[in-house]
Amino acid sequence: MSTETGDVMTDRIRTDILIVGSGPAGSTAAKYAAAKGAKVTMIERRKDVGVPVRCGELIPSDSEIRGMFPEAGDIASLFDVPSNLRLREIEGIDLIDPKGRSVLLDFTGYTTDRDRFDQYLASEAIKEGAELIKECHYQRSENNVAITSAGEIEYKVIIGADGPGSRVARSLGLQRNMHAYPAVTAQAKGDFEPHVKMFFGGIAPGAYGWIIPKAGQANVGIGFSPKFANGTLGEYFDKFVKKHDLDVVTKMEGKFVPSEGMLKDIVSGNGMVVGDAAGHVISVNGGGVPLALIAGRVCGEVAADNVSAGRALTDYQDQCERIFRKPLGTAARNKRLADTFAFGSDRRTALCMRMLGIRRMGNLIRCKKILP
To answer: Which residue has the higher pLDDT, 3 or 69?
Structure first.
């Protein structure tokens, strides 16, 4: 059955695979599980998929993704999206220190509207036969039954794609994401050159900002490490907007970003977690969409094979270990080095950026070692 509904459930639903969350990870898992013939139910607590937007909306090119995750296999079909979702081609990243000095890093990709991007991925899952139930809040699981705000859902496999504070992970007894850092974003009107601008320092100790060009506007935002800063996100965002004379036209939206790489365990019993819930995020820049699609495909296929043929869910953990453990571990170590040596003052940030240089800063962005 291919449905999308916000209606209240009256009877217990029985499904093969329950997926909590309809972001890129959840929708991709739903698509690939349904394509293998599993009965898939995806629930989403929000009224509209992908709303509000809480990320930078930058999608790296296939070549950049392959460079970061060489064990991901064939990714071309994963990232083949309609042309109207590619708003602006990106030709580089300007890395800007607290004193305004800039170096241009070669980097390719494109920007998108994340709300429409997420809605497209959810529609692809529905086309394959997955059911989407919106405005449905997951509360907990008991004996293979999910207790939700709209009723009970009985499942064989559950997948938590419900963010860094995952309730599914908690129900499965999995560890939580530790030391997630806050970030906020909004849209600003204007014409911007086709470079992502990343600002390190100059806002508050341990803070960074970005201006990511789109079509006639840009995604702008900041993130910071709470242990170095003593102000609020709103204060720092206002300072950033004023400093760069940005014409912000939307409400500021926030989220927490995992910062320590993939969790040790992402499978427990008959459940798995994926995307932000699993720590599938690049610590040094907060990027998570490519990882969500790569991991979502693996997660969905393994879940479907488990239902149909008894495949071990630990195969998902094994594949994610091979694809993500090393690069995400490297990114997390790089962030810890930055926290230790570069953050704390603008002077230290500027000095470290000069010492690293463009090659090592490129390695930092791409999950590669910066030392020696």
So the answer is: 69
In this predicted structure, what is the pLDDT of residue 2? Answer: 42
DSSP state of 159: E
pLDDT higher than 70, residue 39: yes
Beta strand 271-273 pairing with 157-160: parallel
> What ranges in 190-270 are assigned the alpha helix state H?
233-243
Q: What is the model's pLDDT at position 1?
A: 39
Average pLDDT over the chain reads: 93
269 and 319 in a single domain? The answer is: yes
Using 50, 70 and 90 to split pLDDT, how confident is the model at 10? low
H or E segment and range at residue 348: helix 346-365
Distance CA 101, CA 76 (A): 36
List all residues 6 or more positions away from 208 whose beta carbon is below 8 Å from its beta carbon.
Answer: 198, 199, 200, 201, 222, 223, 224
Q: Which residue range forms the structural domain that includes residue 292?
A: 3-52+114-178+260-332
Same domain, 119 and 252: no
Peptide bond just before 213 cis, omega within 30 deg: no
The CATH number for 252's domain is 3.30.9.10
The gap from C-alpha 237 to its chain's centroid, in whole angstroms, comes to: 21
Distance CA 176, CA 180 (A): 10
